[in-house]
Amino acid sequence: MAKESILVAGIGVLLFTALMAMYRVIAGPTLADRIVGLNTVTTKVVGIIAILAVLWREWYLIDAAIVLLMVNSVSGLILAKYMERRGRNA
């Protein structure tokens, strides 16, 4: 029972910090700030999914979390490439 409450508290901490990072996504002055904030939020969501997989004993959620991490990585690279090209042409 104590282990479950620790995991639930971890979800709460991750949700709180994800909301703080969402502020950076919404109000970020530059595109780079928004990209980093979105990557941070996505990583925290993956952590929440992993904790829920352990709590609910639904191991397929780990697969979904891995796929989300891969999409997050690829999208970060694509956006970085876009920013690099935009900076050269500007």
Care to give the gist of this entry?
This protein has helices at residues 2-27, 31-56, 60-89.
- Tell me the major beta sheet: none
What is the H/E order?
HHH
Shape: elongated
Which CATH class is shown? Answer: Mainly Alpha
Amino- and carboxy-terminal Cα gap: 57 Å
Mean pLDDT: 92
Helicity range = over 70%
Which architecture would the CATH scheme give at its second level? Answer: Orthogonal Bundle
The counted number of beta strands is 0
| SS content category | mainly alpha
- CATH topology assignment: Helix Hairpins
Give the strand content. Answer: under 5%
How many H/I helical runs?
A: 3
**Oligomeric category:** single chain
Instruction: Calculate Rg over CA atoms.
Output: 16 Å
Runs in which pLDDT lies below 50 for 5 or more consecutive residues are: none
How many domains would you count in the coordinates? 1
Name some characteristics of this structure.
single chain, 90 residues, mainly alpha, Helix Hairpins, 3 helices, 0% strand
Can you characterise this structure?
The protein has helices at 2-27, 31-56, 60-89. The mean pLDDT is 92. The protein has three helices and no strands. Helix content is 91%, strand content 0%. It has a single domain, classed as Orthogonal Bundle (Helix Hairpins), CATH 1.10.287. It has 90 residues and is mostly helical. This is Monovalent cation/H+ antiporter complex subunit F. It comes from Pyrococcus kukulkanii.
Topology, please?
Layout: H1 2-27, H2 31-56, H3 60-89
Helix pairs in contact: 1-2, 2-3
